[in-house]
Description:
Layout: E1 5-8, E2 14-17, H1 20-26, H2 29-35, E3 55-59, E4 65-68, E5 72-73, E6 81-82, E7 91-96, E8 103-108, E9 114-119, E10 129-132, E11 137-141
Antiparallel strand pairs: 1-2, 3-4, 3-11, 5-6, 6-10, 7-8, 8-9, 9-10
Amino acid sequence: MNDNTHTQNQTGHERVDKTDREWRDELTPSQYEVLRRKGTEQAFTGHYVHEKRDGTYRCAGCGAELFSSQTKFDSGTGWPSFTEPADRAKVELHDDDSYGMHRIEVTCAACGGHLGHVFPDGPGEAGERYCINSCSLELDAS
């Protein structure tokens, strides 16, 4: 029997729900730490920091399409940065007051996995910088 359940998230898309044991079995230790426990990779250590290939960045937890390489830019911060999600409905934003500061957390709308944070200092039209942990992503190179 499959213990996965699918419910609707706030955007109306199916939600991927798994047990903690399933997440631990399916993710690498670093992916589990970031996606399920809201951890953060050390700056400049992630696999996609300097990635230049074209493609689609998907959630490492569930495969949802999250970001396009067309919106990726070098922010100099040490994490992959994007000006916008591929589809705004595929990510959710949450207030995050941890570590004595206010930030906006970015999570995958499909599985709830922690991706990173969005900041109001990006170069795009909206002025946003989606600062995303490499290990929360998988590049589907085109």
